[in-house]
């Protein structure tokens, strides 16, 4: 600050500070809440001056000189300076004091500065002021004072305390300036900043304040509030035709009319141009809003006579309601604006409500897409593979790639949980390309270990219809020269979404030229599957699992499957059934002429690394290898199914020993199992005369007895002992299966 100043220096310093202060006060007519840090720093000289005076007086005291020297300093100041004694009675004032307050020096001396007070501030205010003086020897702030003539004025006041060496109060120095002009200017600025100049109603800025307050009020009261965005229809042509003055008059008239239909607590604001916002608060029911809006539409659309011209406009209004639209002020306005556009689209002169639920869904969808984009970038997708087999030969003919999402929090997610978010987005294509690329890599990897089958990727209709689909597929194939294109199959999904048939045919035709195969997925479900199947040059038709799964129970489904198989034959296409959950279904499919199948009954989708093991285990298990299609008489198939179901039954029993909670209890009754039922019905009819068939019954009984004993042992806690008896069980099983083999061989020999 001003350490070790000479008196002369001190006086000069004070002068400079007073001038600086006045410059600042004149140049910055701002309200205190609008003062930023820089301004505050600039204004602080009041404090600095007070401090300087305090120092000067201390020095004067030190040198025992008269206070009148200080008075001459005061004479130069435009600010009023009051010096009081320790009892706070005025001992001196400067000429500026008289100018501002109207009290002469003589009138003031000996009196308390209270004569200047306006009593506008509460006692609490003065208590705080005195507390600050006691604690910090300084106070400054704004205060309302009264002139001698009674006029109230605003003053910026700084008070400093002067103490003697012992710390006792000697003087108080008050410096203040009249800031009434500043205040008036301030109020004017406030009006300009918050009200629309043309219409005098709140502008966007004030609306924002009111909206914030209204949200808080609505939150407290539990009542609703409507934000209505109003845009005039047909305003611009009037402005263009009659000029801006007429346009302005129209806006003023419309404003007056709008005010006429609103309650006093509602806010009407003009955002600019012909855009207004109505804030309707404290609403109990939606109907209230509708009533107001109907009145608004009516008053806006009533004709106006302006400068002898009869003009007419109307209003399009978008409405959003808090708290059903639980958004912040900005979003509420934006939503109302969006709804206003819908009102315009709907033909104008009407209002439209913003659909918060729909908007939430749109936002959630955007978030999901964003998360899926990250998943792709973070390599969170993975393909599982489900084998496709020839039920007759037992060959594994291929595998279908099925996407999964290794979600870091939610675990492994099936496509049904996330793929639909991609529909129609650019990301759908990116994910589709990732799938193709991954499948090509997988084909290469399996080729290297001797698995040379076809691998299918699912392709969405949107992806297939991309103009550069064929070119990009060719490039992908070029990146994997070891892949025979014929080992890649594309399953086309959602055929009903194939909006451009011509394009689809072209793409499929081109891709087939470089050897890639195509299948139509989910056949029978899409509305126009038949047209697509007839027109698209593809090899394979995949019967949708919804028909296959229940075809043994539902004659309609069976009929559909049968027709689809025939259809494929007529059009000379391969046919494969998905959703083959049991071997019985497999058997029926073969009877219907469909030998290719995929489904849980054969294998569930699995990680790629399990496929090699699965293939070898499948081939050793199957007895279909010994058969071929021409030998596949119904009976022989049922023999096979019977044998397989017997194996399955024992596998289940063993599974239960390993993991007792995993499955529901097996019935030990030998007539309840699938094999037992077959033995008593079809089996007896077809093979009842053969001795090998009769020899099966005691073996089957033996298997069940053994199984019951083993199961009891396990149940009673002797799992180890139970397991030791398994070889006996296997032996009985294999003896039974050998008899079935003999029956099968007989069958084949007979057929030959
Ligand atoms: P999809 O192409 O028809 O695939 C067959 C779906 O049926 C798979 O479901 C498979 O796990 C399931 N499935 C297989 N056998 C059986 C069975 O015996 N019983 C039952 N109940 N279901 C069986 P997933 O993996 O959940 O896939 C569902 C759908 O998601 C697929 O149907 C396909 O439309 C789509 N999808 C899967 N992966 C991709 C992909 O990489 N790209 C695209 N665009 N779509 C895919
Ligand atoms: Mg598929
Ligand atoms: Mg399918």
Q: Can you describe what's shown?
A:
This protein is α/β, with parallel strands linked by helices. The protein folds into five domains: 7-73; 81-184, Beta-Lactamase; 196-354, 2-Layer Sandwich (Alpha-Beta Plaits); 367-625, TIM Barrel; 638-751, Four Helix Bundle (Hemerythrin (Met), subunit A) (Up-down Bundle), CATH 1.20.120. The protein has 28 helices and 22 strands. β3 and β4 form a beta hairpin. The structure holds ligand C2E and magnesium ion (2 copies). One magnesium ion (MG) binds at residues 521-522, 542, 544, 578.
Short description:
With 752 residues, this protein is an alpha/beta fold. Helix content is 52%, strand content 19%. Helix 14 packs parallel to helix 15 and helix 17 runs parallel beside helix 18 (501-513).
Any descriptors?
752 residues, alpha/beta, 8-stranded mixed barrel, elongated, binds ligand C2E, Alpha-Beta Plaits, 22 strands, single chain, 5 domains, disordered N terminus, binds magnesium ion
Highest-level CATH class of the largest domain: Alpha Beta
The portion of residues assigned to helices is 40-55%
Name the shape in a single word: elongated
Whole-number mean pLDDT: 85
How many helices in DSSP terms?
Answer: 28
**Describe the biggest sheet?**
8 strands, mixed, barrel
Please state the CA-atom Rg, rounded to the nearest Å: 46 Å
CATH hierarchy: architecture of the largest domain = Alpha-Beta Barrel
- In what range is the share of β-strand residues? 15-25%
By CATH's scheme, which homologous superfamily of the largest domain applies? Answer: EAL domain
Distance between the termini: 119 Å
| Neighbour order of strands in the largest sheet | 13-14-16-17-18-19-20-21
Regions with little confidence, pLDDT below 50 for 5+ residues: 1-10, 18-43, 623-635
**How many individual domains?**
5
What ligands does this structure carry? ligand C2E, magnesium ion
């Amino acid at each position: 600050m001003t350490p070790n100043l000479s008196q002369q220096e001190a006086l000069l310093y004070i002068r400079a500070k007073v001038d600086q202060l006045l410059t600042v006060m004149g140049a910055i007519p701002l309200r205190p809440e609008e003062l930023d840090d820089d301004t505050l720093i600039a204004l602080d000289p009041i404090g600095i001056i007070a401090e300087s005076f305090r120092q000067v007086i201390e020095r004067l005291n030190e040198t025992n000189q008269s206070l009148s020297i200080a008075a001459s300093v005061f004479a130069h100041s435009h600010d009023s300076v009051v010096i009081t004694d320790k009892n706070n009675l005025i001992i001196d004032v400067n000429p500026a004091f008289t100018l501002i307050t109207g009290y002469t020096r003589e009138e003031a001396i000996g009196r308390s500065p209270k004569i200047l007070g306006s009593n506008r501030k509460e006692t609490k205010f003065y208590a705080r002021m005195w507390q600050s003086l006691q604690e910090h020897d300084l106070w400054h702030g704004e205060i309302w004072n009264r002139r001698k003539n009674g006029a109230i004025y605003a003053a910026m006041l700084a008070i400093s305390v002067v103490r003697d060496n012992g710390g006792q109060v000697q003087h108080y120095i008050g410096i203040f300036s009249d800031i009434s002009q500043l205040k008036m200017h301030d109020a004017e600025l406030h009006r300009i900043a918050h009200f629309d100049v043309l219409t005098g109603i709140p502008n966007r800025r004030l609306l924002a304040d009111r909206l914030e307050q209204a949200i808080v009020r609505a939150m407290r009261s539990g009542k609703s509030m409507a934000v209505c965005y109003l845009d005039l229809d047909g305003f611009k042509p009037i402005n263009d035709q009659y000029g801006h003055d007429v346009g302005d008059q129209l806006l003023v008239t419309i404003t007056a009319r709008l005010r006429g239909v609103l309650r006093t607590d509602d806010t009407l604001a003009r955002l600019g141009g012909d855009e207004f916002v109505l804030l309707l608060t404290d609403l109990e029911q939606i109907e209230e809003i509708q009533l107001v809006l109907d009145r608004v539409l009516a008053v806006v659309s009533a004709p106006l006579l302006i400068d002898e011209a009869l003009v007419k406009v109307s209003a399009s209004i978008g409405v959003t309601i808090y708290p059903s639209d639980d958004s912040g002020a900005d979003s509420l306005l934006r939503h109302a604006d969006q709804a206003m556009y819908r009102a315009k689209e709907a033909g104008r002169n009407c209002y439209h409500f913003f659909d918060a639920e729909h908007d939430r869904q749109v936002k959630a969808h955007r978030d999901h897409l964003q998360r899926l984009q990250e998943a792709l970038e973070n390599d969170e997708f993975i393909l599982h593979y489900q084998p496709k087999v020839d039920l007759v030969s037992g060959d594994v003919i291929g595998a279908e790639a099925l996407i999964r999402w290794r979600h870091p929090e939610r675990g492994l997610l099936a496509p049904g949980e996330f793929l639909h978010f991609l529909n129609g987005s650019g990301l759908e294509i990116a994910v589709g390309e990732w799938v193709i690329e991954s499948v090509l890599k997988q084909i290469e990897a399996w080729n290297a270990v001797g698995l040379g089958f076809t691998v299918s990727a699912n392709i969405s209709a949107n992806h297939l219809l991309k103009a550069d689909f064929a070119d990009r597929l060719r490039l992908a194939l070029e990146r994997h020269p070891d892949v025979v294109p014929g080992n890649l199959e594309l399953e086309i999904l959602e055929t009903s979404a194939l909006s451009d048939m011509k394009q689809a045919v072209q793409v499929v035709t081109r891709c087939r030229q470089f050897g890639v195969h195509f299948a139509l997925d989910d056949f029978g479900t899409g509305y126009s599957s038949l047209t697509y199947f007839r027109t698209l040059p593809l090899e394979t038709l995949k019967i949708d699992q919804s028909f296959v799964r229940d075809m043994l129970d539902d004659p309609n489904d069976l009929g559909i499957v049968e027709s689809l198989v025939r259809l494929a034959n007529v059009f000379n296409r391969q046919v494969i059934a998905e959703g083959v959950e049991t071997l019985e279904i497999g058997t029926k499919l073969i009877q219907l002429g469909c030998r290719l199948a995929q489904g849980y009954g054969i294998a569930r989708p699995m990680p790629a690394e399990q496929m090699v093991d699965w293939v070898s285990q499948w081939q050793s298990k199957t007895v279909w290898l010994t058969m071929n299609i021409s030998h596949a008489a119904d009976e022989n198939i049922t023999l096979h199914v019977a044998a397989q179901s017997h194996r399955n039954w024992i596998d289940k029993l063993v599974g239960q020993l390993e993991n007792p909670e995993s499955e529901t209890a097996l019935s030990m009754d030998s007539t309840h199992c699938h094999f037992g039922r077959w033995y008593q019905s079809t089996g007896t009819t077809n093979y009842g005369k053969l001795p090998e068939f009769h020899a099966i019954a005691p073996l089957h009984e033996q298997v069940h007895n053994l199984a019951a004993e083993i199961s009891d042992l396990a149940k009673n806690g002797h799992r180890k002992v139970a397991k030791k008896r398994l070889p006996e069980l296997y032996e009985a099983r294999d003896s039974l299966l050998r008899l079935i083999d003999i029956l099968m061989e007989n069958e084949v020999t007979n057929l030959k």
